[in-house]
Amino acid sequence: MAETYVIGHKNPDTDSICSAITYSHFLKLNGREVKPARVGEINSETKFVLEKFGYEKPELIEDGTRKRFILVDHNEEGQRVSGDYEILEIIDHHKFDFSSSNPIFILNKPIGSTCTIIAEMFFENELDIPKDIAGLLLSGILSDTVIFKSPTTTEKDKEIAERLNKIADLNLVEHGKEMKKKGAEIEGVSMKELILRDSKEYDFNGKKVCIGQLELVDTEEFLTRKEKIFETMKSIKEEKSYDSLVFAVTDVMKEGSTLFCLGEEENVGKAFETDLSSGKAYLEGVMSRKKQIVPALEKVF
Amino acid sequence: MAETYVIGHKNPDTDSICSAITYSHFLKLNGREVKPARVGEINSETKFVLEKFGYEKPELIEDGTRKRFILVDHNEEGQRVSGDYEILEIIDHHKFDFSSSNPIFILNKPIGSTCTIIAEMFFENELDIPKDIAGLLLSGILSDTVIFKSPTTTEKDKEIAERLNKIADLNLVEHGKEMKKKGAEIEGVSMKELILRDSKEYDFNGKKVCIGQLELVDTEEFLTRKEKIFETMKSIKEEKSYDSLVFAVTDVMKEGSTLFCLGEEENVGKAFETDLSSGKAYLEGVMSRKKQIVPALEKVF
Question: Are residues B174 and B199 in the same domain?
Fold first, then answer.
């Protein structure tokens, strides 16, 4: 029988990688033979987290043919590893678009991170959580909720983080800021990578739309590179044949995003009731791709 | 704000109706304002169960426009009430085919009945289960697992039934047999109703296929009405423009089904490695539409 991997989405973020490792640990405690995996290179935020808690990068899987997967932190085809494979389970916190020919275990909760859901499963099953696993779970929560500032954050995320921190014993805000700072390191990183490293592709009513997001503690300096941003977006859009490329530069402290848009400017502008004819607009209070940007775009397309 | 209803699938069975009532009770204990509902007329098995435990039929909903629904025991569009409405949650144990534009709570488990999942939620949350609610939950489990004989039955279903019966104090096999006997009452019921009352429509690669099932404690006498069965199937197939109409007459005691098939006989026969050119074949060990008939047909279509 093919090996079973626990795997997160393409362009993996900290929640995806930490979910894959911690849910593998959970399943092993329940007697299941599984391995964590990843679809792409980890980002610098995740690298910092894995080093801090003493974990290696999970195995890289580029094509899922003849394997069996447990999906964490994603469910839609566009976010999944390519190939022809069996999906055994899904643990997620995103909008849903999935079909299977057999009943499988699915747990999707409208909360801030997949790591919150996995931590709940440890607690519900009264399983021991080692200190480093608690650290990974907390890192996933802090990353996806932007240190509890994202509007996707729920009381459950905070409550679970508090319980986990009785084990991990971290300064949560400091750890979160340090993570975000590492993730926001943009020195020596190409503009193309900055736009794409946290990007997801969507099919909105037949239109191929890519939405990238860059979270920075302070966006001012980065935004002076406006021309380089547009130039790079233009070449990405052409290379990948996107109908629209959207790039949100999120200011974690100001709690808002500067949106860059190339293609479908009128529709995207309408989604946020703003004028995007210049290709750029500041959106007060917009911090979450999942909860704010994607639903708004889905409505207008 | 529109009212929120907890609702099961079209052609409701005992698991759907008991899930709607018991999950409404669960949510009310958690401070949520919801009502149980049903999409169609209840069958005689369910009628017996509701009378036994002192419950009214839930409210009938024929069109879901401008309502909000929590789906139990189904998720696919073909099984849902028609209309344009918001889906807030899904608790189910079937194969999946669902998409949403927002993250919602989804819990799908590959086990014998939705009532098992709901009972687990009561236990996990340490909520009090009244005796009559335990009776409904047990009835849903016994009905969907055919008194633990269906191959969809898991250890979890048996374990939860045992815990529930500490409250309900029923003779499970006797209660299950009595339910099935009531459900199998075919005197005075038209052949059309017998074929359709537990039927579901599927889209298999563009083919419109309807699969009806009739569970009987003894099928011998019923099967002598072969000509009437084919004649009625023919008129249903024409009226509803099905590409194929499949009717499984399941013998609960012999643990097998006689399959009648009109349209696509070659494909359907291939699915069960049998010759269906006469439109009829006995399938040893086949008892579950969900776990045996649907996946087999999906593969060949």
Answer: no
Q: Find chain B residues with C-beta within 8 A of A101's C-beta.
A: 95, 294-295, 298-299
Measured between CA atoms, the residue of chain A closest to residue B113 is A103
- What CATH code is carried by the domain that includes residue A57? 3.90.1640.10
Say which of A99, A109, A298 has its CB closest to residue B97: A99
Look at residue B8 in the predicted model and tell me its pLDDT.
Answer: 97
Residue of B nearest to A97 (CA): B99
Band (pLDDT 50/70/90 cuts) for residue B1 is: low
Last residue of a domain, one of B119, B149, B182: B182
Range of the domain at A149: 4-182
- Are B94 and A104 in contact (CB < 8 Å)? no
The predicted pLDDT at position A187 comes to 77
Pair (B122, B162) in one structural domain: yes
Q: Bridge-partner residues for A4, per DSSP?
A: A68
- What are the residues whose beta carbons fall under 8 Å from the beta carbon of A113, sequence distance 6 or more? A15, A93, A140, A141, A143, A144, A145, A157
Query: Residue A113: closest CA among chain B residues belongs to which residue?
Result: B103
Residues A125 and A13 in one domain: yes
Q: Do A108 and B105 touch (CB under 8 A)?
A: yes
Choose from A30, A98, A209, A290 for mutation: most chain B CBs within 10 A: A98
Quick check: B262 and B277 in contact, CB under 8 A? no
Count of domains observed in chain A: 2
**What's the gap in Å between the CA of B287 and the closest CA on chain A?**
16
Pairwise CB contact (< 8 Å): A101 & B93: no
* Average pLDDT of adjacent 10-residue blocks, chain A of 301 residues: 90 96 98 96 94 97 90 96 95 96 95 98 95 98 94 96 98 93 82 92 93 90 93 96 96 91 95 94 94 92 90
Give residue-wise pLDDT tens across range B40-52. 999 989 999 999 9
Whether B93 and A110 lie within 8 Å, measured CB to CB: no
Q: Are residues A222 and A271 in the same domain?
A: yes
User: Cβ of B106 and A94 within 8 Å?
Assistant: no
Q: A104 and A31, same structural domain? A: yes
pLDDT the model gives residue A243: 96
Are residues B141 and B203 both part of a single domain? no
Percentages (nearest 5) of helix, strand, coil residues in chain A:
40, 20, 35
Q: B130 with B99, same domain? A: yes
For tokens 């195995």, the residue is A59
> Three-class SS string for A132-147?
HHHHHHHHHHHHHCCC
The pLDDT assigned to A217 comes to: 79
Structure tokens at B113: 């009945």
Question: B55 and B86, same structural domain?
Answer: yes
Dihedral sign (CA B141, B142, B146, B147): positive
Are the Cβ atoms of B298 and A101 closer than 8 angstroms? yes
Q: 0.95 cut: is pTM over it?
A: no
**CB-defined contacts A:B, below 8 A:** 79
SS3 state at A10: coil
Domain end (from B153, B182, B211): B182
Per-residue pLDDT, B232: 96
* Spatial CA neighbour of A203 closest among A91, A294, A83: A294
- Chain B residues within an 8 Å CB radius of A108: 103-107
